[in-house]
Amino acid sequence: MNRVLGSSRNLSLTLGAASLALAACLSAAHAGPAMPRSMDPLIQNLDPSVKPGDDFFSYACGGWIKSHPIPPSERGWGIANLVQEQTYIQLHQICEDAAKVNAAQGTSEQKVGDFWTTGMDSAAIEKQGITPLKPYLDQIDAIKTQPELLATIAKFQVVGVHALYSAFVFQDEKNSEQYMIHLYQGGLHMPDRDYYFNQDSSTTHVRAEYRKHLVAIYRLLGENEATAKSSAATIMKIETGLAQKSRTLEERRDPWANYNKMSVAELAPKTPSIDWNQQFTIAGIAHVDTVIVGQPEFFTRVDSLLKAVPLEGWKTYLRLSLVSSLANRLSRPYDLENFHFYGTVLSGTKEQRPRWKRVLDAEEDNIGELLGQVWVKRYCSPATKARYEKLTNDIIEVYRDRIKNLPWMTEETKQRALAKLEHVGRKVAYPDKWRDYTTLVVGRDSYAANQMRIDEWWFHHEANKLGKPIDRTEWDMTPQTYNAYYDGSKVEIVLPAAAFALPGLPDSLVDDAVLYAYAGGSTIGHEITHGFDDEGRQFDDHGNLNPWWTPKDSIAFAARSQKLVDEFDQFKVGAKHVRGRATLGENIADLGGVRLGYEAFKKTDQWKSGQVINGQTPDQRYFLGYALSWLGHRRPESLAQQIMTDVHAPQFLRVNGPVANFPEYYAAFGVKPGDKMWRADSVRVVIW
Ligand SMILES: [Zn+2]
After folding, report:
1. Which residues contact 336 (CB under 8 A, 6 or more apart)?
2. How far is the CA of 639 from the centre of ligand 1 (A)?
3. Ligand 1 centroid from CA 341, angstroms
4. Distances in whole angstroms, Cα of residue 640 to Cα of each of 17, 361, 629, 644
5. What are the DSSP calls for 45-114, one per residue?
6. How remote is the CA of residue 529 from the centroid of ligand 1, in Å?
7. 287 Cα–ligand 1 center, Å
8. How far is the CA of 656 from the centre of ligand 1 (A)?
9. How far apart are CA 233 and CA 222, in angstroms?
10. Which pLDDT value is given to residue 7?
């Protein structure tokens, strides 16, 4: 589900696209006991037929990958899935327990249980067919004028159907003490604007399949073949028109270019067809006088399309927007057609996950914190939280020392960087205060109705923030999520408990090399450096876009990061080149994370004593432990989609890319000139 009003776009996630739900908690900071070889992932996952200097990722993870094919229901398979499998079982029990107790109306248990029950009741879902959407389809049919069309678009935004454009409430990027409405490009039903234009074979295939998908959807809605084809052509015309004026992944990473604050009166002449006051009023948002427009040229294009495309075409478009956003809450024909395009064509997945997992995914996405409250009680203690907090503080302390001693940064900028680092909020394991869902209503009428009610609740929850002080207690991920993020406007890192989980390993056996690489480097270190990556560094210690670097330091930073752009531009996945500029922020964070984790590890007894575990030196185990963070593989379709839509490089490159810049890696594995991963000193990158 794409919850646009409420999605915070200024977030830097550790993982890509979907946030994956997760598992048990890894404890921190103890000396490494001898881990039995048979349980040691750093031994068991190896592929000794690969030289660590040729392809370190395949050396570290290849054995596991060969023996763990991707299940038909998954687009990829790896460590995140292993953790998620544990979490699925835990959340399944939580939902079953809630559904069983017959809880009083309005309680959290009733909400969790009823959402679960309507989602699992496939007989009722089949019987209802498209009926839950009937009132909305009727509204579309009844549209007679363009103002009525726009009014319907505004009403649909409230229930989670995001047609034509995106609107969300987020902090003003230049005044982080104030919430503002942001208007953003949107309205496409393929994942990115590039899908409408790229001419490579995988994208032209997706585009051809998209046309078929559109025809199939309109056939399901009762159109004959000829009409359905004409409807599909209308969609291609509208969406290609929107895509032409949509910005690329690279362009969307420039926070200055995507910040265009203007009064509603100033926006009006750019979009004379749209009465924005009316759009906001219908959505129940009063007194909006100023907005931040991400891409003004996109809205100019929206206006010209509104003039060019006849009303019937827009009604066709709205039907697609409605059905697409709820297809996976409807009966099988809609659900399966939706899965065929978005699951199989785009991601290569052969079959759907079992229903219970899909309903858990939906529940997690909609009311995940209600599950999280129970999950934390059962699976994550305050003592565990305290250990993660200590590890987080240890990594930040290392970063502080690194900044103080950076050879390329002036004293002036160092002082400001250190001040910003002190400001970074640290949310670790689980929230101190849970989100209040009291006013949310969940019923037993239908799965789709619950979805729309929850979307409506979220819309108002976000819209109600306007004019109020910033809520600094909220989390945008649940504690059971295997992921983490940095929020550039709130200036905080958020590290859910499950991000530290190591599936299948008792805490007592995890040595510090693994701990500092896996939790310290790839999670904590990664997130903390986001505040200083090519995008994050443009925000000051209060989370405002505000240049605080001296020109000399900006030039030095740009020169170093350009080397990383060059490194990743050279990587290829299938026929597609990795996009060094689009993935730069994440690659800087990975590079920094590996360094911070390593420097923290050097303070441990394991490193100082040179303790060998299962034949591996501390440094070997550190780099293998880092590779464990990205253990896994993905289907070619999913990799192609990742390169087109994701600011994260594919997992194997998140290992080989940063590691090849570390002299300690070369020394630990005897990597020499002539080995495929060898990089000359002159091109190796050090930023932090
Ligand atoms: Zn990241």
Report:
1. 352
2. 18
3. 28
4. 13, 23, 21, 6
5. T--TTS-TTT-HHHHHHHHHHHHSPPPTT-SEEEHHHHHHHHHHHHHHHHHHHHHHTTPPTTSHHHHHHH
6. 9
7. 36
8. 16
9. 17
10. 35
pTM of this prediction exceeds 0.90 = yes
CB atoms within 10 A of CB 550: 15
What local confidence, expressed as pLDDT, does residue 12 receive?
Answer: 56
Gyration radius of the chain's alpha carbons: 25
The string of pLDDT tens digits covering residues 632-663 is 999 999 999 999 999 999 999 999 999 999 99
* Sequence-ordered strand ranges (E) for 96-187: 166-172, 175-184
Instruction: State in Å: Cα 11 to ligand 1 middle.
Output: 8
Task: Find, among 285, 316, 312, 322, the residue nearest to 156 by Cα.
Answer: 322
Give Cβ neighbours of residue 383 (< 8 Å, ≥ 6 apart): none
Span from the CA of 311 to the centroid of ligand 1 (angstroms): 43
Say how many Å lie between the CA of residue 485 and the centre of ligand 1: 7
User: If you average pLDDT over residues 328-345, what whole number do you get?
Assistant: 98
Span from the CA of 589 to the centroid of ligand 1 (angstroms)? 6
User: What is the average pLDDT score of the chain?
Assistant: 94
pLDDT in tens, 565-590: 999 999 999 889 999 999 999 999 99
**Ligand 1 centre and the CA of 482: distance in Å?**
13
- pLDDT tens by residue, 189-200: 999 999 999 999
To which residue do tokens 């040691």 refer? 40
Distance 122 CA to ligand 1 centre (A): 38
The span from the CA of 28 to the CA of 68, in Å, is 28
Tell me, rounded to whole angstroms, the distance of Cα 425 from its chain centroid.
20
pLDDT tens digits, residue range 533-569?
999 999 999 999 999 999 999 999 999 999 999 999 9
Q: What is the pLDDT of residues 5-46, one digit of tens each?
A: 433 334 555 444 333 222 333 444 444 457 899 999 999 999
For residue 431, give the nearest of 471, 373, 482, 375 by alpha carbon: 373
CA angle 355–358–359, rounded 5-degree value = 85
- Ligand 1 geometric centre to CA of 170 (Å): 20
Check pLDDT > 50 for residue 1.
Answer: no
Tell me the per-residue pLDDT of 101-134, one tens digit each, with 9 for 90 and over. 989 999 999 999 999 999 999 999 999 999 999 9
Q: Which two tokens stand for residue 33?
A: 């006991």
What would the two tokens of residue 657 be?
Answer: 């890319």
CA–centroid distance, residue 476 to ligand 1 (Å): 15
441 CA from centroid of ligand 1 (Å): 34
Collect all residues with Cβ–Cβ distance below 8 Å to 206 and sequence separation of at least 6.
190, 195, 345, 346
Single-letter amino acid code for the residue at 170: F
Distance (Å) from CA 467 to ligand 1 centroid: 30
- Cβ(368)–Cβ(430) below 8 Å: no
Share of the chain above pLDDT 70, in %: 95
